[in-house]
Amino acid sequence: MDFINNKKQYIPFASSAIIFVILEANGYFPKLFYYFLGANIFILALSIWYLARGSIFYKNFLHYSILPLCLIISSSVYGILVSDSLRGQILDILITILNYIGLRSLYFYFEKSEIYKVYLMNNFFSYAGFLIIFFSSSAIFGLVSFLNIEIWPLLFLLTFVIALVLFQYYLIYDIDRKRSFPFILLASLSLLEISWAVSFLPLNYTVAGLTISVFYYMASGLTKYFMQGNLNKGIIKFYLLFGSISIFILLLTSRWQ
Hints:
The chain has 257 residues and is mostly helical. The protein has two domains: 1-111, no CATH class; 147-257, no CATH class. The protein has ten helices and no strands. The termini are far apart. The relative contact order is 0.09.
């Protein structure tokens, strides 16, 4: 067991390095995108499975794979829309760093959950959820804009992604699954309607994605505090103020199509 645990500490770096090489290769061979994406999904899932071995979380390791897998998939699809090579390189580096932090957090969480849960898992998964919604919604609005395809099927796909992210988000904060289900449904459908409304605005796909991400951040935070019994006027004011200022800045500084 000690031998396995000693090997586990190298998994986050090794997995991230391989994923970075695959991301770079995808830039040179874009026609092989689906093969490269499949390889990254396999490597990431295998890494999380290996990290969970021997821990009390082993049977439910798939639950902890949701956000990392959604992050690599959504960011890779978003990367298709990035035509500038420098921005593409920055995105690849960002994905690699996030992957490393995520796997490193899971490694410590599986080994010493009580010590590292708040400082690593909760914080990382909160930020990862925000980025997943940004990448996913931006990619959807971008694909609709560039390919002129129907948005409704993609919005339902976005709603499914939001539901998955919220499920993982509430799980990390130890919120009962049965209690969280109505809030997942309500928040997902609300964000679906907001996404549909945003699609009518002549916004750049990146700005549209950030707008949906801000609404997600507000919805996830408010519902989390409510289910924990910690929701108060101060928290409500913070999220409303943050959301209002963020949306105002985005609309004020955005390039309208």
